[in-house]
Design brief:
41% of the residues lie in helices and 23% in strands. With 353 residues, the protein is α+β, with helices and mostly antiparallel strands. The chain has 3 domains: 193 residues, Protein Transport Mog1p, Chain A (3-Layer(aba) Sandwich); 66 residues; 83 residues, Serine Threonine Protein Phosphatase 5, Tetratricopeptide repeat, CATH 1.25.40.10. The strands form 2 sheets. The protein has an 8-stranded antiparallel sheet, with helices on both faces. The protein is flat and about 65 Å long. The two termini are 21 Å apart.
Length: 353
Amino acid sequence: MRRVFPILLIVAALMLPDPARAQQQTPLANPIVNAGAPWPFAGFVVDTPGLDDLYSQLRTGEAAAIGKQVVQPERTWAFVVLTLRPGRAFKSARELSEHMRTRRETGLDAKRLTKLAHEEVPTEHRGQPCSRYTIRAIDRGEKGDENVLMQFRGLTCVHPDQPDRLADVAYSERGGEGVMSEVLTKAGGRFLESLRFLPLTAPPELQAAMKREQAGDMAGSIALLKPLAEAGNTRAAAVVGTALLYGRGVPADPEEGRKWLEAAAKDGWVDVLFTLGVVYDKGLGVPRDPEAAVRWWTRAADQRDAQAQLNLGIYSWNAENAPRDVKSACAWWERAANNGNERALQYFKANRC
């Protein structure tokens, strides 16, 4: 499997002055089972590409890198999400396009890439000023001994709450003979168009609910949060669902709590996905259902959630929902350990994986 992480660095270099320096080690490729599922970031959500055999090599609250290798003909596809903070606000799409043109031109790694074409087009997306871009370049590779065509298409948009914060989504193809794959173009187009914004500032009702919770009035907090949740605020629904599930400051009602959590899951919040796995693992308000627990934990594991990956490894080892699969258990524990879970590392070593 060709790694997508170097492609992330190339894409990031077109937008960031110091791309991905925080990465201390090359992360393991993690499979993505639920193609097309929503992934939330700081102030926006995107739907993962609707393709088979995808894998991720980066997932944080502000960035993600998803890849796919196409063997015949040999090409590598990458889908990248980035949050950008340019240090200035933008009032129009044209102003944003001019800035991003300069930024991407400056960020181009001239030692590795030879630019063939670059276009920035002012546009709007969901009512926000954006710049839609295409880049074609020759990639000489890390050692400078290759001569491979790279093509990028992306969308950079101003966040409605903070005009100095940008969401950038892009897809790319490394390889090919000039025309980007039709399959990639369709999947990539849906990926870009799936970008939708979430509030960065809590609405007044949510702020008031937080104050009541801090004062020990959880019932009053829930009373304020429920109308927000009913109106579609998924973070409010997550708080209501968790409180009712465990009886935190209010009488426990696991069945109603689960319903609110499932409503919150539509934006893909990983803590909600994980908790829903616990609901079915423990049988909280529902009959115990290991297969349902695996489905929810797998959605969390897709986003590189180490605790969900640990649990999936334990399930595979203990034969909770299928015959024991030692290879699968070890793979889940290795991914969880690589994503920072110390307990998974202990399982991996103790069971001689």
